[in-house]
Specification:
Radius of gyration: 48 Å
Number of helices: 23
Strand order of the largest sheet: 1-2-3-4-5-6-7-8-9-10-11-12
Strand content: 5-15%
Distance between the termini: 132 Å
Amino acid sequence: MEIPPQEAPPGPGADADADGDADADTEEATAEAGSSSPASPPADGRLKAAAKRVTFPSDEDIVSGAVEPKDPWRHAQNVTVDEVISAYRQACQKLNCRQIPKLLRQLQEFTDLEHRIDCLDLKGEKLDYKACEALEEVFKRLQFKVVDLEQTSLDEDGASALFDMIEYYESATHLNISFNKHIGTRGWQAAAHMMRKTSCLQYLDARSTPLLDHSAPFVARALRIRSSLAVLHLENASLSGRPLVLLATALKMNLNLRELYLADNKLNGLQDSAHLGNLLKFNCSLQILDLRNNHVLDSGLAYICEGLKEQRKGLATLVLWNNQLTHTGMAFLGMTLPHTQSLETLNLGHNPIGNEGVRNLKNGLIGNRSVVRLGLASTKLTCEGAVAVAEFIAECPRLLRLDLRENEIKTGGLMALSLALKVNHSLLRLDLDREPKKEAVKSFIETQKALLTEIQNGCKRNFVLAREREEKEQQLQLSASMPEITITQPQPLEESGDPASTGAHNGDTSPGPLPDSDSDSDSEVEEEEEEEEEEEEDDDGQRKEASCDQSPSAPCPALVPPTDSLSPEETKPLGSPTSPTEQRISVSSPGRGHKVFVVTRVESPPERAEPPSPPSSASLPPLSPSSPPVLPPVQPFSAQDSGVPEPRLEPPQSGPALPNGLKPEFALALPPEPPPGPEAKGGSCSLEHGRAGAGGAAEGCQPGGGTGHTVTL
């Protein structure tokens, strides 16, 4: 007798199998299958079904490997225009889409395909998904600086495909997607991914492309994390509300964006302006903020002014054109301007500021040190307001441009502006209406024309002065950075009519200070005449020796040669005269503290540097064993010296006393120590032979030709 299936309990074999299996889900599935079947299968069938089970590998074995996306330009080869056009046409045929004649004409005009091409202009062309897919054949072969996709009717699919291509191939540095109102959420998501991943994209123009609430988080995340964008245009993008909150919050941490354009977004004076003020408090890298054609109002300007006070080195241009600002808002701005240090351009045009608003703004502008361009076009100013502006012009030595067009400024205001320009020398451009305003007195119209001409002439005069100042500054920079090098030919020895040579001929025995080899010279500026005086004195050595014979009490300068002549490298005395073939090179350069450094180098020709050549009789006194020179006795250098030496010629005291009771000064008259070897013995002057005079030293050590270097500091 069979038991009905719905009442049959599970068999023990099934329980045993369930206990043996590790998978509880398999047990439940088997029991349910047995209870739901109209006829229970035999136990062997249930065991066979239970043996089938699914297993998964461990977590370590699930992912076998990962491959980074390759750089599409790493192994790129040079292509030709014909290859690009052929590939694009084949893609269009494959996708069954229309070829773009405008694109084909541009491809045929391209010449340099190895570098980024200036522009790919597809403005106004309708691009559907298939047309965008065909463009990949161009983007994979060419890169551009500007890709213009303005008003191309992009949808979500086409925009996503294009942005992915531009991101992968790094196709553009400037991208224009303005006036594409149907790119949708997926299009903005792909654009945000492109902004985050593409390192070369610097400029994005999305004017009149709505960025709605569900799309704004993607863009905000891309701008907050990392983005290479420097310029972002979001005019007329419906940003008021949550999109602006997300955008301003993300830009607080952005350090790359320099220019932000938010015109025509209907930004209000409460929440939107408050977030813009917070943005200015924390972001110091933004340089241009364009808020024209919004509803900021005076209340919103108060929030923005709070952020401006925190700007120390950031915002340089603020555009508040047409934001319904009045004199109340100018009071807030007037108190803020003295605290701003980076703001250079302030545009307040098309706001009903009035004369009272300009008066509130005047003191702040005078106290400000950075504003150089001011826009007050169409601000309902009259002659009274022009007088306040003229006071600011006269007090501001930095203003470069002022826009006062579309205001009712008549004769009185023009006279004030003309007088202010006579005092101001910085204003280069003052924009006024070309046609004079209507006056009750007809003669005033001619006066207005004359004043307008005078104002323009004043601006031209300032322009010329500014150019002259710039040229002078450039010349000063060049003269300070470039040293002056002059080469002077030596003068003949016969022309010695200077006072130094005259004094030497008259028996003057007071030469310049002797150089000291142990200490550097502390003087910074010396006359070149002292050096020439030393040369002339050494040139006329015989006359000086004769004068020394007449005054034996004073030591002879010939007995104390300069220390430069005692060095082994230079055997020519410093005071030896120059030959007519030598050149003197002087290098002078202005130093710090108005100090002038002069370096003089005297070079001899190479043939004079040969040692065997005897010195000329005109340059050296005749020194030979057969005719010894007439010299005074060497008593001033002996140990029993009782004479009174001249203080100016006293040699420096250096080192311990020499053996045999000789004074240390005697070492200055000795020749340099000869090098070891038999060749130097004949030219040595020793103390054992008793030849301590200058004659003995001259006989043993003949000066050879060399190069003398004179450094005057």
